[in-house]
Design goal:
347 residues; alpha+beta; 2 domains; 7-stranded antiparallel sheet; 3-stranded antiparallel sheet; 18% strand
Length: 347
């Protein structure tokens, strides 16, 4: 695998949700009337930093809300959680309480992370309240269509709530678990190659190690590994092709080095082809949903003409395919990516 060091110079703007996208969300039951919105959670005047177990700053803060607002906020969050997890069945939150609310000051979306606890057994879960950004919603939908993962989220006006994706953060895994002798390094390297391929094809950008998690499943004779994206803010916005290839971020160097050490060019190609086959089958099985999403996104303004031109030119050179020069939108580029995948798999 090639290595490199790519950076994102500017913060991506938040794109509003178009009327066509809202219609799509209603059809696929992604919309809801939420009892609390993102702006409600911004009504705090003080906060204190959240530190990890080692005393390091996590870039999250815990807001302090006025006493007269706490009950309303907590009740609204419980109802929102019930809508997210059980179509609004309030019985699932009957014995739950909001333990804490954290606010992230790092990144594009400045999300709120909510911890909800079952008072009967202290089992807890997390969910997130974020700004409803069209880029992120397109990313979540493409993740639902093309990846083996299911995503769960709801949108109401300018507010998005999203379930927590469990796993070990990729940067933490690289520092603490990557050299674990109980783990097969080839399995980890294989998963990174497939993840890299999927991001490139679906144009999911900025997959630095802290934007994905490692999920580990014990098998009867070994461990299975699965890389899963947790941040979709940089869905087909940037013009630099390398932004969509996790191998080029310095934060992912340990994974790239692992692949270079344990995989040959032949096995890398094999794993890329496996991911291409998976994407082809998903595209066929979800063709109606994919067509509707394509029709909506083609009308949407979710990048810049300069970025579109840069990316299509980069892909034309990278793939030696002049058809990319005729792409007028990011949606056109993804559509051509998928067509090329189908052609490669069937050749």
């Amino acid at each position: 695998m090639e290595v490199g060091d790519v950076t994102i110079a500017k913060k991506k703007p938040i794109y509003p949700i178009s009327a066509e996208l809202r219609k799509y969300l209603r059809f696929y039951q992604r919309d809801a009337r939420l009892p609390i919105g993102y702006k409600d959670l911004l009504n705090f005047h003080e906060s204190f930093p959240v530190m990890d177990k080692s005393g390091n700053d996590t870039f999250w803060e815990s807001p302090l809300y006025p006493p007269h607002e706490i009950e309303r906020i907590h009740q609204g969050l419980k109802v929102a959680y019930a809508l997210l997890k059980a179509s609004g069945n309030l019985r699932i939150v009957q014995h739950k309480y909001i333990d804490r609310i954290d606010y992230c000051t790092f990144g594009n979306s400045n999300p709120f992370r909510v911890r909800i606890v079952n008072r009967l057994n202290d089992v807890y879960d997390y969910f997130y309240v974020k700004k409803a950004d069209a880029s992120r919603i397109y990313g979540l939908e493409l993740e639902e269509i093309f990846s083996p993962n299911q995503v769960n989220y709801l949108v109401d006006g300018p507010t998005l709530i999203e379930e927590h994706i469990a796993g070990i953060p990729g940067d933490v895994f690289a520092k603490t678990r990557l050299s674990d002798t109980d783990y097969n390094p080839i399995r980890i390297a294989k998963e990174f190659v497939k993840f890299n391929e999927r991001c490139k094809i679906t144009l999911l950008g900025d997959m630095r190690a802290y934007n994905f998690v490692m999920q580990i499943t014990p098998d009867f004779d070994d461990f299975q590994f699965h890389l899963r994206a947790i941040d979709f803010d940089q869905q087909f916005y940037e013009g630099n092709l390398k932004v969509y290839m996790p191998q080029f971020f310095k934060e992912n160097l340990p994974y790239v080095q692992l692949a270079m050490k344990h995989l040959t060019d032949k096995t890398v190609l094999q794993y890329q082809q496996e991911e291409q086959s998976s994407i082809m089958y998903q595209a066929r099985s979800e063709k109606h949903r994919l067509k509707e999403l394509r029709d909506v996104s083609k009308k949407d303004n979710i990048s810049t003409p300069e970025n579109i031109e840069e990316l299509r030119n980069g892909l034309a050179v990278y793939s030696q395919d002049a058809n990319y020069y005729r792409c007028d939108s990011m949606t056109d580029i993804i559509e051509l990516n998928i067509k090329n995948v189908i052609r490669l798999v069937n050749s």
